[in-house]
Specification:
The complex is a heterodimer of chains A (about 325) and B (about 325).
Chain A: H1 12-22, H2 24-41, H3 43-51, E1 63-66, E2 69-72, E3 74-76, E4 85-87, H4 107-143, H5 145-160, H6 163-175, E5 179-181, E6 184-186, H7 192-201, H8 203-218, H9 221-228, H10 233-269, H11 281-289, H12 297-324, H13 326-333
Antiparallel strand pairs in A: 1-2, 3-4, 5-6
Chain B: H1 2-29, H2 35-40, H3 46-56, H4 62-75, H5 89-124, H6 129-142, H7 146-160, H8 182-215, H9 219-226, H10 231-262, H11 264-270, H12 275-285, H13 288-316, H14 318-321
Helix pairs in contact in B: 1-13, 5-6, 5-8, 5-10, 6-8, 7-8, 7-11, 8-10, 9-10, 10-13, 11-12, 12-13
The chains are: A mainly alpha (about 325), B mainly alpha (about 325).
Family (chain A): Belongs to the binding-protein-dependent transport system permease family.
Membrane topology (chain A): Multi-pass membrane protein
Protein name (chain A): ABC transporter permease
Chain lengths: ~325, ~325
């Protein structure tokens, strides 16, 4: 008789995978992200073998050979008196494909290097934020009572400070002297500083839905059953709660990374994020601010890169939410 | 109802205390450097350092330091900038506030009107190309860094297309007080308004659409349909009015955060001398008292605005009014 039974339905994860694989826009977003990440990973190859420039040393006096002519990197402006110098615009050749920035450095190579730091900071910030938010949300939602009230009020307090102002305050006190906690010293130009600041300011944003999910789960029958069987609390959290929260975490991941990328670019634009000589898309936009009317490419290109990546992350997050059906699941169980 | 109000008041006071403590801790207890050096600014002389140390009580216990700071911020309001030759910080913030308020109010008007229209239209035409286009446009709006959008707008309106009929009316960057010339005020602000509103239009129209779509399954909507009301009337009168509850609470928080200095990047890009711009200048000079004061005042403002929104709820929502 056993072989007559229908095959068991696919598990929730497999169903979600199938559903997202059918979602064409989510797949396109994933492909875009993979492509951008790969391109940024290959930044050193591009700089050394294609562009033949060092994107980290200033090159204002240099010149390059284009179509057999030697061309200065800093060129006189096209005003009638030829006053002042501007970096070379897009050449559409292998060297200086998108032109140079204010210090005569190859913009295309810097974009790729900047993308490495932007993606690194935003993805690490998203992961750190999720870990912190999961801890806070699970502890608050599962314990309830005084612990929950205390943690929730702490989140309210952090929530009341405008996100960017909070990040700016944290950055300004760390950016000048770094951070010293006991034996650990973090240098002021370390990427760890923006990563942790961005992660911290978005914790309330992520902790709230996690807490709600855990509170709903706490009432679920399988948790009551486990409790009746005398399973210790930590084991209930690890075996019953955590696996059911992962869908929420997975859904929040891309959205948090999108927010982190925007926050990183804003901090870097204010010189509070990634510190020179390292570059990120935000610092390149800041470099380009002074050139916005003469060489708009310097500011426009990194901004476009941010828009493309953040848009892809948002589309992916939407797709994941639909596939994992987090909202419906939450409604059913509450 | 009285009890609910009192409990809310207690919570507000607690959050206010918590925020002031948080800001204090961030600025003065973060390990790394002596807070005296942070207040006094770069290359301060030993005499100035000593004066700062005495004035802020940095040689005394933390609770005393906290009390001194709060007194200087809210009671005597004589917090002075050391970088900017003793300029008093609080009056400076109050002078900048009308600029920020002008910017944020105009942007808020635009984003509320446009996002209600977009969200309702998208919900009414659910799953058609109109819905998909509007929601994709909203997503693009959310994905743009506001300072970059501002720069690109400047590039188009101030430089590349400034001499065409379309943008020749755009004045140079900067602010014109309303009292000086209402038309100049409007012309100086209309582009910053739109740029600031773009992200919020994206967020609000998407939230409103999904709210309206989710409502379609509710009992009261089915009842309205069963008694023969037209779909338009159901959507606009029954649906939209219910969704406004989420909308108002989102709006209260965002509006307050922006007035409190969250519009910093927009103000910087468009050269508007508001509270955010003040913070930005202070950042460049490492002028901590100014930054601390703007952060503290904005947080207080946000808490007050949230309390006001909750009060509004008590009167708007019968469930809250009757104690759930």
């Amino acid at each position: 008789m056993a072989q007559d039974l229908p095959a068991p339905p696919a598990g929730p994860w497999r169903q979600a995978m199938r559903s997202i694989a059918r979602n064409r826009s989510a797949m396109a977003a994933l492909a875009t992200l993979a492509l951008v990440t790969l391109a940024c990973m290959l930044a050193p190859l591009y700089a050394h073998h294609v562009a033949h420039t060092d994107p980290f040393t200033s090159n204002v006096a240099g010149s390059i050979v284009l179509d057999g002519h030697e061309v200065d990197i800093m060129q006189p402006n096209d005003n009638p008196l030829h006053l002042g110098l501007s970096p070379i615009g897009p050449t559409w050749h292998a060297t200086y494909l998108l032109g140079a920035d204010s210090q005569g450095r190859d913009l295309a190579s810097r974009l790729l290097y900047g993308g490495r730091d932007s993606l690194l900071v935003s993805s690490c910030a998203a992961v750190v934020c999720l870990v912190l938010a999961a801890m806070a949300g699970i502890v608050a939602g599962f314990s309830g009572g005084v612990v929950d009230a205390l943690l929730s009020r702490m989140m309210d307090i952090m929530w009341a400070v405008p996100v960017y102002l909070f990040a700016i305050s944290l950055s300004i006190v760390t950016v000048s002297h770094g951070l010293r906690v006991g034996p650990v010293t973090v240098r002021a130009d370390s990427l760890l500083i923006p990563i942790f600041i961005i992660a911290l300011v978005y914790v309330p944003y992520a902790a709230r839905p996690i807490r709600g999910r855990v509170m709903a789960l706490r009432q679920a029958e399988f948790v009551t059953a486990a409790r009746c069987l005398g399973v210790p609390r930590w084991r209930i959290v690890v075996r019953d709660i955590l696996p059911n929260v992962t869908t929420t975490l997975v859904m929040l991941g891309p959205l948090l990374m999108a927010l982190s990328l925007l926050a990183e670019s804003a901090l870097s634009f204010l010189s509070l994020g990634v510190q020179a000589p390292a570059a990120s898309w935000g610092t390149i936009i800041q470099d380009g601010e002074g050139l916005i009317y003469t060489r708009p490419m310097v500011a426009v290109a990194p901004g476009l890169a941010i828009v493309v990546v953040v848009l892809a992350l948002n589309i992916l997050g939407d797709g994941l939410r639909d596939a994992l059906d987090v909202r419906d699941a939450a409604r059913r169980s509450s | 109802m009285m009890l609910a109000l009192l409990r809310r008041l207690g919570q507000t006071l607690f959050v206010l205390f918590g925020i002031s403590a948080l800001v204090f801790v961030v600025f003065f207890v973060t390990p790394g450097a002596d807070p005296t050096a942070r207040i006094a600014g770069r290359n301060a002389s030993p005499a100035v350092m000593e004066k700062v140390r005495r004035e802020y009580g940095f040689d005394r216990p933390l609770p005393v330091q906290y009390a001194t700071m709060m007194k200087k911020l809210f009671i005597t309001r004589d917090l002075a900038s050391y970088v900017d030759r003793g300029e008093l910080v609080v009056p400076e913030i109050l002078r900048a506030a009308p600029v920020t308020a002008s910017l944020v109010c105009g942007a808020a008007l635009i984003w509320v009107v446009v996002s209600v229209a977009m969200g309702t239209l998208a919900a009414a035409m659910k799953d058609t190309w109109v819905d998909r286009t509007l929601m994709m446009a909203g997503l693009v709006g959310i994905s743009m860094p506001v300072f970059w959008l501002g720069q690109v707008t400047n590039l188009v309106t101030q430089s590349r297309y400034h001499d065409t009929w379309l943008f020749s009316w755009v004045p140079g960057l900067g602010y014109v007080p309303f009292g000086e010339s209402p038309l100049g005020w409007f012309r100086a602000l209309v582009i910053p308004w739109i740029v600031l509103a773009v992200m919020f239009i994206g967020i609000y129209s998407r939230v409103l659409r999904s709210d309206l779509v989710a409502l379609a399954g509710e009992d009261f909507i089915r009842t309205a349909r069963a008694k023969g009301l037209s779909p338009v009337r159901i959507l606009l009168w029954h649906g939209l009015r219910t969704s406004m509850i989420t909308f108002v609470s989102l709006f209260g928080l965002d509006f307050a955060q922006l007035v409190g200095g969250g519009a910093l990047l927009t103000e910087v890009v468009f050269g508007l001398p508001g509270v955010g711009h003040l913070t930005y200048q202070a950042l460049n000079n490492l002028d901590l008292p100014v930054i601390m004061a703007t952060v503290m005042y904005s947080a207080v403002f946000v808490v007050m605005a949230n309390a006001a929104v909750d009060l509004l709820y008590v009167f708007l929502d019968p469930r809250v009014r009757d104690g759930r």
